[in-house]
Every structure is written in C-alpha cells, then in structure tokens.
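The records we work with from here on pair a chain with its fold. Taken together, the tokens spell out the fold as the letters spell out the chain. The record below shows the convention in full.
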Amino acid sequence: MKPSVIAIKQQEIFKFNARAKSIPGVINMTVGEPNFPTPEHIKEAAIKAINDNKTHYTVPEGNHELLSAVSKYLHDKYDLNYDPKTQIVATTGVTEGVFSAFNAILQSGDEVLIPSPAFTIYGPDADFNGASPVYIDTSKTNFKVTPDVLKNVLETNPRIKIFLLNFPSNPTGVSYTEEELKALADILRNRDIFVISDEIYSELTYNFKHISFGNILPEQTIVMNGLSKSHAMTGWRLGIVCGPAEIISQINKIHELATTSITSITQFAAIEAYKNGYDDPISMREQYQARRDKLLSGLNKLGFKCPTPNGAFYLFAKIPEDLEQDDVKFANDLLEKEHLAILPGSFFGIGGENHLRFSYAASMEDISQCLLKLADFTKGQKK
C-alpha cells in the first residue's frame, strides 16, 4: 500500500461529529453546513431533470449550459471573467476541486503554504502528493496573513508551489479587504506559485462585498467556489474550479480520472441555481448574521474572546484563561457532561490551540441552549 496514504489520519472533525450525533438530545454546534433546505425552485429543476430522463453522463468538465451559467454568475457577482469553454471545471465539491488541483500541480518535494488555523483537508492533500505543508500561524495577527510574514516565508521556502488562501475562513470566519488582498498579491506576483483561493463562503459575508483573489491576481489564481454554502446544497456535491486555461485543462485531466463527471442531476439543479438563484442567499445570510450576533454576545459575556467574523458561519473563540486550556479535553468533557458538541480549535492546526470552533449554522433555540449549557459547564470549571 502507498505509504503516503497509510500516513494520512482520519479527519478528527468527522470522528468527533459522528460521536456527537450518537448522543440523544445533543446540541450540535460542530456542523459546517447550512441548516436551511435547498430552495424549492432548485429542487424542482432536479426533479424535472429526473422525469425528463436527463440521467446520463455529461462531458467531464461539466454540462456546457452549466459552465456558461457559472461564467455569467461569477461575472455578475464578482466581476470575474472566465471562458466557460476553457477556464471552468465542475467538480464533486470544492473538496475534490482542491484534491485535483494539488494532483495537477505538485511533485514530490514541493511545498504548500497554508495559513493556520485552516480547514483540515489542505495539509493531507499536500502529504498525499509527496509535498510538505508549510503552516503560517495567524493567531497573533487576527487570523490573517500579513504581507511581511508572507514575504519572509516565501524567501525562506523556495520550494513553495501553492499558496492556499481560504476566505471567508473556515474555521475563523475572518475575511480580507481589497487592500489586504492587493498587498498579498504584490508579494506573490511573478513568482512560480499558484494561489488556490477557496472562496466557497463568498456569498456569506456581512456588511461588505466579497472581493475575489481571481480579480487581484488572475494569471496565477485558481478560484474554488460552488453552491454548498450559499444555496444550502452541501449534499449535492458541486464545486466550481476556475483559472487560467492552461492549468484548468490539467486539473480536468485529474478530475476525469477520479470521477468521469459529476452527477447529471446536480448539474441541472445547479443550472437553475446559477441562472435564477441570485437572491437565494440573502435571507439565509440575514439569519446567519442575527445568529452570529447572539452567539458572539453570549460568548463574550462568558469570557470567551474571538474576532468578530465577517463571513461564513463560524466563531473561533479563545477559552478563558481561568478554564481548562486543553481544548480537546474541554470539548470532550463538555460533550460528555452537557451533551453540547463544539469542535476543538487544535483540530484545525497550528494557532488553534486553546480555542473552540462554534458553528452558528444552527437554530436560535440551539444557540440559546448552547449558551446555557456552556454557562453551566464553565461555572464548575473555573480555577
């Protein structure tokens, strides 16, 4: 068996969530997916496709009507300009998109630069390809990469081939301004490095408009997006990968080896979403913001400190110093004693120690119960 595969560990977040789901009556604040249903008009489009027998293979890169709809949507939303014939591939979620991009780019001995804390697939994807993840601890810089740090790391790590940027971020919810992105692009420009910009939460931003890195540094950037978070379509498994034609053609080779093509029914649902679902995220985004504000206020009153997230649906909270600082022990004890599930921050890598990740893709009632249970638990934990 392949040593690089044997060395990969099962994702801790999945194991913890499975354990949480096995507990009757648990309040689960771990889940990174919308708790809203997929909009009705999208479901109806999928049902119609099934009834019309549109249930066969499509071309590997995706139905051309879908790719055209994606191209127009990304232009209208983010002023991105991608040729649907050569610069877009539809993948089985962004997870497969990242995997296929890493496989297309990396060779043994290469390095992947990852701001940390980070979503948990990026490092193992690098390991699988014989590359090494290089982590930037962002916990001292408000969970953002600064230009000075980026420059220093690139100068001391000449084998970096990919800079993985995820914004709005999972697990912290922080994002970047246009000025901040331009400052990073100035450091990256004209280097032999691809930027993989995971922007799956681009429609879930609060009080500001998302700026795509594909607009800032288009010649080096591979943009990842999709409908999972914006349109409550996690189970449909649609990812969108966009970038320069020469690299997209290579990513498509890996994609077709892995999947042939994504599910035809998902593609017809996605055509409807991209053509007629421009406003679908609005009401969900408004409710997420109200939930964020309630959870953030409650956590602050209990002494938990975290940056105010301006995107996604996560709060990344520092455990108060007078409580247990081992975040894994804290989360396990909380699950056992209060039946409240919150993910340990260290699951997300360097800089996540002594933190907890709360998902507010949950009902207001669950958020209220979360705060009550957390208050009860912390009363008995104070040193």
User: Anything to note?
Assistant: The chain has two domains: 3-38+280-379, 40-276.
